[in-house]
Amino acid sequence: xxxxxxxxxxxxxxxxxxxxxxxxxxxxxxxxxxxxxxxxxxxxxxxxxxxxxxxxxxxxxxxxxxxxxxxxxxxxxxxxxxxxxxxxxxxxxxxxxxxxxxxxxxxxxxxxxxxxxxxxxxxxxxxxxxxxxxxxxxxxxxxxxxxxxxxxxxxxxxxxxxxxxxxxxxxxxxxxxxxxxxxxxxxxxxxxxxxxxxxxxxxxxxxxxxxxxxxxxxxxxxxxxxxxxxxxxxxxxxxxxxxxxxxxxxxxxxxxxxxxxxxxxxxxxxxxxxx
Amino acid sequence: xxxxxxxxxxxxxxxxxxxxxxxxxxxxxxxxxxxxxxxxxxxxxxxxxxxxxxxxxxxxxxxxxxxxxxxxxxxxxxxxxxxxxxxxxxxxxxxxxxxxxxxxxxxxxxxxxxxxxxxxxxxxxxxxxxxxxxxxxxxxxxxxxxxxxxxxxxxxxxxxxxxxxxxxxxxxxxxxxxxxxxxxxxxxxxxxxxxxxxxxxxxxxxxxxxxxxxxxxxxxxxxxxxxxxxxxxxxxxxxxxxxxxxxxxxxxxxxxxxxxxxxxxxxxxxxxxxxxxxxxxxxxxxxxxxxxxxxxxxxxxxxxxxxxxxxxxxxxxxxxxxxxxxxxxxxxxxxxxxxxxxxxxxxxxxxxxxxxxxxxxxxxxxxxxxxxxxxxxxxxxxxxxxxxxxxxxxxxxxxxxxxxxxxxxxxxxxxxxxxxxxxxxxxxxxxxxxxxxxxxxxxxxxxxxxxxxxxxxxxxxxxxxxxxxxxxxxxxxxxxxxxxxxxxxxxxx
Lengths: 275, 493
Hints:
The complex is a heterodimer of chains A (275) and B (493). Chain A has 275 residues and is an all-alpha fold.
């Protein structure tokens, strides 16, 4: 654990403070007895959430200029990017895909930013030869987008499970539908990331598939969402708990692919430079 | 389609395919643990190598079954056949499987057996600078797996480093003061010397004084002196000026080495007894072959040998290797150069010895220096020490192999191979894989056949395009037409 006294640390801590404020404001909005107070708190929560995003955009651009390459090389930069993507994707899922508004999304953003702020080293590094490719941004970028999308889908799937147990039928149906729509959004991005990774592997390492642990867990993640989409296509929402289980299992695979494979000493592979 | 197909065959096929897909999920998780040293009752739970596991005969049957069920599912499913994006996704998956099987080592073996192709599936080539090869090996320099129908000639290998602002330091490698003699197996330490042009410093633990005469931050070497680099079987490297009359006595092996002749350029010829010998020829502006003739006196017997650059002494001497090299004899400032040069004066009083030498760092190297023993002779205290210019290693920017593809004597293609920029020629890809980390004299290229690759890329393109169209474009079109979000693959209400 470390506190970053560099400028990039300031960006992250300010964004975390904004999102902590958003979390508190949204909680207050949910518990407010007066409607007007509730609306004010809700707007304050939205404003803080947007402010955090603006700070992270600035931080990402600052980092890009500082390291002179797309800042997606190490875990610090990856989590900075993930944090930055939270707000626009939450907004899209809520406004367009009908996802339920929930304070858990803000909490998720705080959880994502925490390792960037306090765990991972932020020392700037030069790009090694293997990462000097035009595929760097599209491959990693599409995966980062898909990971946040699947995280939001997992939140909706979790809400559905809670609603189902609480017998809140309408809310449960809405969150089940939202889960499906969000996974529909993320699955092409996951596919694109996988395909671009294969193309890059061929250019850099000589083979489009090396049976690397990262690649195998990426494939496992892909397959679990394939299973979700097939089951959803065949049975719709009739077995909604199965659907939710697959969505949550898929997100568990995302976490393993992103964190365990990169950081765990038990996995050795060609993606080790991301550790 | 008949009711029987609809009600019996199709559901079974669907569930079998999904079951195989689920099995693939399990195999992926299992495969990620390959290499774990975990045993139960003495048996490894996880295979050592994931690649070997997934290409094993059992898994080959799995891949074939998966492809067959996918094809059958596509053919028997009107829902897939009628929808372009859905068809693209599933057909793409089949193409990826088929192309991968074609590109696999087993696929190449079958193609060879059926007389379709004699391509090498994959391997490595280790090629020295100014050398060429058409052999492909399994692993670096181990069993050969085949020959290419053309040769790869390595013109040059080099490494580019990122710019660094770290300054060059003058360092001495000397024995640790409490440990006594430095030599094989004895402790040494690196000491940075606080140098300034004109100041004289004592090299720690030795009697040698070093005075920096000049330092050129960006330098080009203007002249060289030839030296003989001698590496006894047991003992440190010895550098001897490659001039007629120079000699050295070695303890292990016990022999005397004398330089008889030194030519800047020579050619091979036959003497009166029809034995191969070298004769001096005029120095050429293009390419020269410098050579020295040395005499080895051992156990009262004398033998002569010719010694060349890079390949050393011919014939080989037992217990000894000697190669013709060169050291800088002069340098000047050059703004185009990124490498420094430092001229130092080395002095010792007992026995008296003095020499002016240049420390240079060659392009692509991180340090450059000299052994005090090679310049001033053995230290009276028996201490071995070295002086060198060095700075913290900057990160590597790129590895570069400049190669020619040759058919016979004809150059048919020239390329610079870097990571992410392979050479594609004659049905093969060539990748920068490794290099000679110590001297930078050879490169290691990995070689991969491109058989079936087009099928893999086509399949991946279809899967990607179909996925985006099915899950993004169609719903977006429906959304903008009706203003409502609809499920993928369904018409808007």
